[in-house]
Write a structure and sequence with these properties.
The structure holds 2 protein chains of 2 kinds. Chain A is of the alpha/beta class. Chain A is built from 10 helices and 10 strands. Classes of the chains: A alpha/beta, B mainly alpha. At the A-B interface, helix 2 and helix 3 of A face helix 7 and helix 8 of B.
Chain lengths: 234, 340
Amino acid sequence: MSFLIGENMVGGYGGADILRGCTVEVDEGEIAVIVGPNGAGKSTAMKAMLGMLRLKSGSVRLQDQDISHLSTQDRIARGIAFVPQTNNVFVNMSVRENLEMGAFLRDDDFSHTTEQIFALFPVLAKKQNQLAGELSGGQRQQVAVARALMSQPAVLMLDEPTAGVSPIVMDELFHRIVAIRKTGVAILMVEQNARQALSIADKGFVMVIGENRHTDTGKALLNNPRVRRSFLGG
Amino acid sequence: MEILTDILSAMVLLMNFVVIPGLAYGSQLALGALGLTLVFGILRFANFAHGDTMAFGTMTTILVTWWLQSKGVGLGPLPTALLALPVGILVTIFILVATDKTVYQYYRRKKAAPVIFMIVSMGVMFMMHGIVRFVIGPDDQRFLDGERFIVSARGFKAFTGLNEGLSIKVSQGLTIVLAVALVAALFWFLGKTRTGKAMRAYSDNEELALLSGVNPDRVVLVTWIITGILATIAGTLYGLDKSFKPFTYLSMLLPIFAATIVGGIGNPIGAIAGGFVIAFSEVTVTYAYKKVFAYLLPTRLEPDSLVQILSTDYKFAVSFIILVLVLLIKPTGIMKGKVI
């Protein structure tokens, strides 16, 4: 049984269903990646697991407990953190304040977590008093991920963390995500850069029009000729 | 020697009729604009009921002041209204929160557009204005008691031997001191406390604040509490300094909106700067400089006219012109707020 699973999810934002029975799951200390063409419902699947979209059928379970009926806020309180694709930092607040907001629900002393985050993202330690809106795109993405980690989540969800950043920054971000996996967090992400993402993934889900087309380990998907031909450009 | 006293007299004149009234009026506008900008930044609508919220708070304070006066309770040299202020604030907060629960909350749940909220707030404005007129009447009310001056013109003349007197009213001194204290407290709250940071986060990026676990109902509640405090204090200080008349507070919406927009709407520092820009523009444009020139210029160059750029009857035109100019030239305001 997986740590977090969205099973046979069906639903959409009114009108036609975007999700047509897809299943996504992730375990602790694992990276699961959802890839697929545009409009396949990758982000929608993630949002459904976060409770931002009502499911017509199917269920979302965290540690074997059905959380399908919970609101997004309640799911966050249970240890799911989400990094949106855009507008994912507080631009008018300093880097340090962004981190504090990430730890908003924590009542304990989170200075130790802040140190861990600064060790993971050294550039943020240097810029901690700067407004997040003044940082470069890559640094902002780091702030966004760091904010989500401050709550010490059990599951970290990333919606296209490398969208719009340069290849060098992308490599660095993937490098950091692998480092985060070592702390035991379950990481679920949606990615456009399928090849790189699958190369670090423990589980991969290739999604097409709201359904799972291929589900396997990242490595197996990379070596699957049909996946390569259809989704990875040969 | 005579030249020196003339220059000093001219400076005292300007201090007395431009600088000190400008500082006091600017502080009152700044406090009003802060409330408006806070509601805009966090609840995301232009609150037309703000002027009448100030009137409501002031009215409650006046009623409690009268009751205290009838019981013989006072503060000695300070106005009794200071003692009544906390009650005025509490009642105003109650009304604001009740209005939110019965009116605004419905539109928030429906995710209504800001323009709908604005029109709803106009309805609230008419309601509040009606309540205030109904309860206290449309006439002028004076409720200032205690000592009138910190520095009186006569005392100043006797002390310095100058021809011109400088007076600082208790209400003016109180306005400036309270405004500074209130602004410091507000910035400390927004910058240092957990709830204050949550409010800034909510204003900055609502969705991300929700994803961080910020409770939106709490943010809304605290926003109305702060608005109630700011509006009641701003209104009461204005009433102590000038007088209380419901219609004056309704028309004060224009300078307050102008101050908010000049400073950059949604930006608290901008609201304060905007308050002083509007206040000093109004005061400097409507002051008659004849006597100042009489001191400074040789006798044969003395002006015959009042040397007043604009009659005080037209003072609202100043806010209006500044407002239009800012919207045309720099819609984000001097401190770069949101573009409306």
